[in-house]
Fold this sequence. Notes:
Blueprint: E1 11-15, H1 21-34, E2 40-42, E3 49-53, H2 57-63, E4 74-82, E5 88-89, E6 92-93, H3 95-107, E7 116-121, H4 131-148, E8 161-168, E9 171-177, H5 203-213, H6 216-222, E10 228-232, H7 238-245, E11 249-253, H8 260-264, E12 268-271, E13 284-289, H9 295-307, E14 311-319, H10 325-340, E15 344-349, E16 357-364
Parallel strand pairs: 7-8, 10-11, 10-13, 11-12, 13-14
Antiparallel strand pairs: 1-3, 1-4, 2-3, 4-9, 5-6, 8-9, 14-16, 15-16
Helix pairs in contact: 3-4, 5-7, 9-10
Amino acid sequence: MAATGAIAQPALLAYCRAGFEPELAAELAERAGAAGFAGYPRTDRGSGFVRYVCEDADALSQALPLRDIIFARQKLVAFAELPTLGATVGAKPDRVGAIVDAMAHALGTPALRFGEVHVEHADSDEGRPLAGLARALGNALRPALREAGWLTHIDSPARPRLHVLLETGDRAHLAIADPVDSSPFPMGIPRLRANPQAPSRSALKLEEALLTLLDRDEREAWFKENMHAADLGAAPGGWSWVLMRQGVRVISIDNGPLAQHLLDSGRVEHLRADGFVWHPKRTLDWMVCDMVEQPRRVAERMATWLREGWCRRTIFNLKLPMKKRWDETAQCLALFEQQVGKPVEWRAKQLYHDREEITVFAHARA
Length: 366
């Protein structure tokens, strides 16, 4: 039998962009404290994930929905840590046996059946070379879990999902995902393909924002044929192109040139103007903005659009400084909410296609 060597230490396990572990750790600590939970973060810079150790990780997970955690791509409840993946049998470590044993040790009898299992690696320099091992381990682990009674014989996405995060080839974390409060995508990353018709790769940021920050019902209700939008700082037109494909008519504001096929579509009007000065004469359904500018200046201008009723909804990016990025994020969003001057709902996330920035969706409440 494989020796588990597992460490049972309940924790919230959250994935993030490599290099943003301090921001995610600070965010989790602040939010957990505000919710009344004692605990502490454990992470290494560049690892691509943070463990927030808490005695009641299940309750903490319920108090901190994934949608509300800005720097997290994925949120799980970890129940075991395997510092050595299985006892050596001949020349090979028995990783499958170690995982099955650790689950029995931590969870007891397999009364909780999982609907799916994701064997993943961190999105980091150390984690990416583990992609092949993760695939092979997943293929070997699924039949073993089904035989042991842990996994349904047919994938059942409505059931809790088992995650195995490979930190290294010899170290793993076991965790549970709530299917209604976690990302369904492996590693929390929606795999989007760049379209050759898109004027720039920035189109992927808005596509991911629509998929991540809005649910299906909201996308259907808020994007209808011949709605109207403005795209501030539009050139060369990546975000205007995404809106156009949603059936929206777009006023693209930028002193720079737009891709000609956008203008030829008949759905995009190009105005050469300053995005920080121009505003529409009537209320638009949407305003989007990906201008490179100080984040507080952007936050204030976006607030003005909602306060003055120039748009019903907005999606915008805030470019973050190199240091104290969580502090700057919190201050910018507090400033934005204050400057709107009326009830506003906002959601923010550092997306996979973002870099030193976060993306925000907001709309004024009725």
